User: Which sequence fits this backbone?
């Protein structure tokens, strides 16, 4: 463990082996930091925060800060960051609220680039990349293996499905479907995220079944949404990916689902 003499670390914080704390950083009480994690200069780790092993927290980060909530200060609520996650310079992560999940979670293997904001009660899965200056409002769910491009404002309570791609600079105010590409204003889906699916070695069977599911979902021949969902269930192969897509479509949506992207 290497703590710079100009860092301030509470005696009630628990630091694992080989943790590095840079100068002018403050680590408060009731903080746990796993083995091999590095905390950059001028960062602040607030109470009730747990950071996993082999993470890198960049310069000027605030982790576990007060939620920006008028009614709920989130006293006693939590912040979790998984193993091998990187927060680049000036990332802000706010803890949960009692009116929400009571915690904010960032999973393992995530790469959160500079100046990103992650608000209270967000639940992020594993292996997520968020590019510079995107901002997640409260209560957002991001599933595993999502790529969110830079400069994206994301509305509270939205869901972003696994292996999806969000284009840069777009306002996200609808749920982004799993396995797809979200672009446009208003935001909409433009086919499958084939680059990510192939890089992740999805089988041809899985990709073909998803292509058919997307075709049925956005079919102009089936007017009612519920009928489209039933068509996917009846006509597509029963793969894990199709089951996940169906569960997402039938899940609770407070913002509504993104439709087909409009062509200009």
Assistant:
């Amino acid at each position: 463990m290497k703590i710079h003499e100009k860092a301030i670390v509470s005696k009630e914080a628990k630091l694992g082996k080989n943790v590095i704390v840079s100068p002018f950083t403050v680590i408060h009480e009731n903080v746990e930091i796993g083995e091999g994690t590095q905390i950059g200069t001028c960062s602040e780790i607030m109470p009730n925060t747990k950071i996993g092993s082999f993470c890198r927290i960049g310069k000027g980060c605030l982790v576990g800060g007060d939620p920006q909530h008028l009614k709920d200060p989130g006293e006693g609520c939590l912040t979790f960051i998984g193993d091998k996650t990187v927060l680049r310079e000036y990332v802000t992560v706010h803890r949960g609220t009692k009116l929400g999940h009571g915690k904010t979670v960032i999973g393992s293997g995530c790469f959160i680039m500079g100046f990103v904001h992650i608000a209270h009660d967000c639940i992020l899965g594993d292996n997520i990349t968020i590019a510079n200056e995107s901002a997640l409002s409260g209560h957002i769910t991001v599933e595993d293996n999502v790529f969110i491009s830079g400069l994206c404002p994301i509305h509270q309570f939205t869901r972003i499905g696994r292996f999806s791609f969000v284009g840069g600079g777009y306002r996200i105010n609808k749920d982004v479907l799993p396995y797809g590409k979200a672009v446009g204003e208003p935001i909409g889906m433009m086919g499958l995220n084939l680059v990510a699916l192939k890089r992740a070695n999805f089988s041809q069977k899985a990709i073909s079944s998803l292509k058919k599911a997307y075709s049925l979902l956005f079919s102009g021949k089936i007017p009612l949404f519920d009928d489209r969902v039933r068509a996917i269930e009846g006509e597509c192969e029963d793969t894990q990916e199709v089951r996940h897509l169906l569960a997402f479509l039938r899940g609770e949506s407070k913002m509504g689902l993104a439709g087909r992207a409009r062509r200009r």
Observations:
- The chain has two domains: 2-139, 197-260.
- The chain is about 15% helix and 25% strand.
- The helical segments are 194-199, 204-217, 225-235, 240-250.
